[in-house]
Amino acid sequence: MAASPRSLILDLLSTLSRGAMPVRALVGAGTHFGISENNLRVALARLLRSGRVERDERGRYRLGPAARAVQRRVASWRRSEEQVRRWNGRCASELTGRRARGGRASGRQNERALGLLGFRSLAPGLEIRPDNLAGGVASLRETLVGLGLDPAAPVVGLGDLDPEREARARTLWDGEALVRAQGEARRALEVSAARLPSLSDGEAMVESFECGGAALRTIIRDPLLPDALVPGDERRALVEAMKRYDRLGRAAWRGFLAAHGVVQRRAALDTQQTDRALAAVRGEARRVASGGRP
To answer: Is the pTM of this model over 0.85?
Structure first.
């Protein structure tokens, strides 16, 4: 998927180790993706107004408050196995009430937070996921609120379901599709990794951004289900492949960023991938709700 001005800006700003990035670096990067200076500046102005980015006194840019909680969530992809714990066997143990006050904007924030943590709708107003995340319900509640869930929305443990609802709950996630997507993303990384040394600097920058971003979307989209529901071997293999590819991608961008005085993080991130992943999450939820109809 080609980078948009918005996603390119957010991705580059998320790689900062410290300080901020000059607009000339953002504009220069945009040229490699066929993004005009005008389009990039328009996107930058909109992100600035929304609080996703902020500008310092020297006119340099960094991620803003509205993007930091999501950035922290995205940054955790490298430690995905640390985020899960032994499952107690219950089909669902978290629920959340989504009908919070605040209008449409609040509803979208709630949906985003729930989607990021893999919740699915079992019944109207009842969103569930397996209780296999580290820290249990208390940690889950804190993370959801940090991602934008209305603090008044109840997040509680859910006891045993009746057999009919338990059986339905186990169908809310398409495990075969998850595993298939993970395998495809891993193989794409391996093919691209073999190609990168033969590409020009600009071509390697673009390919590593696009291929790595696609793999990262797949990792973010994964709800980290217990192996009893969805085997996690392919997920773990993808994360390891992405760690290796991330080193190649950072190397491809290092010269360009250094020329603009920009210091990268240890690991490159793509905050904007979250929005794309959420669109897929919502589509999957609608598919399940409609009985599997497209």
So the answer is: no
